């Protein structure tokens, strides 16, 4: 019995590893043969047992028929035969018992096989259901991605409409000093998003920060100005990329690029702008080769449409040089940097002129409308951008802090040691990092961050601009504080500052 059990277990183990649906057939046939043979053995043993019992009965009769004076040797022979028959009957009974155990084991195995078949059917059904669920999940994710793209598009359109709404009062407000007021209004019209220059790589390009002044120069020189919707789209893409949501940012860029090429053709400045945005996302993903290809394409379009000495061409050259530097191609980056510097030097005088216009417009707004008028903050933002173009980072930083401090005082009261503007808390978090080597929690420095859900595009833009400036200075914790607050302002409005 033990040999049979071991062999049968080996057969089961071997069968368990089979994946072919035809594999169980030989095993079932073998089991059937074993059961049939076992039944035949039991019948044979029963017959043999009955025969032994009959013989034993005859021997017992013979022994009882012998008289007391019979030959002892004959009695001994008959007794020995009776003992042999008893032992033989014991072996026969043992065989019958083992055969019955084998039959019971066979029945148990049949039940197990039946259960195994049921489990296989259930597993197959579960696999099918899992496959259906995966397909449904994939379809749901695709629908979600489509919905997010639609929402993103609607947000872009909504922000553009809000921007148009903010500039209507400026069109109606004409000062007695016509030339500077006109320049200020034109500059304010470009204040919907001050984090851009040419929609390149602002984090790596100290000169590629946003300025309405740059766009005014571009418009005056070539008749081209980056549309507000592309500026807003840029900031939206940057937000998605900063959250690591490239699965939303990349399709959003590609769809916008496809739409622009359909409406304006490939060789259009707007297409170059969109190529820069997509290159920025690829750069953040570490896809430097793809980003370089897009930037080279954008460079060619801008040179052909805007001219070889346009500031946007300089910014693209600088972005491309930065990208080459990240790939270790410093010899390729150097001539691009030199050419970009030459173009910027040619345009430097224009930025100084823009700075004077903004300074004059700021004085007019403060004198006629007061320091709390929204146009004052917008003009300070634009003036800061013009200062950045000239490398006057300290002066630009001072203006950004003035805007945030004034907004804080209007909402939370006078500044004190316990009532600090967001930029102060940002710099304290940076100092905590530099002193202790760890990031400070918002619980310690983030009361303003948690409370301020602003409803002012200018304040949100200032948060982004000062955050970008902090990053150029290597103050990443301070930058993160301002950027998080700017992102928070998009999700809900609790306070209105203007």
Automatic annotation (TrEMBL):
Composition-biased stretches (Polar residues): 11-33
PROSITE patterns attached to this UniProt entry: TPR
Compartments, as annotated in UniProt: Cytoplasm, Cytoskeleton
Gene Ontology CC: cytoplasm; kinesin complex; microtubule
Ranges of the TPR repeats in the UniProt entry: 272-305, 314-347
Family under the similarity heading: Belongs to the kinesin light chain family.
SUBUNIT field: Oligomeric complex composed of two heavy chains and two light chains.
Role: Kinesin is a microtubule-associated force-producing protein that play a role in organelle transport.
The protein's name in its UniProt record: Kinesin light chain
Organism per entry: Bugula neritina
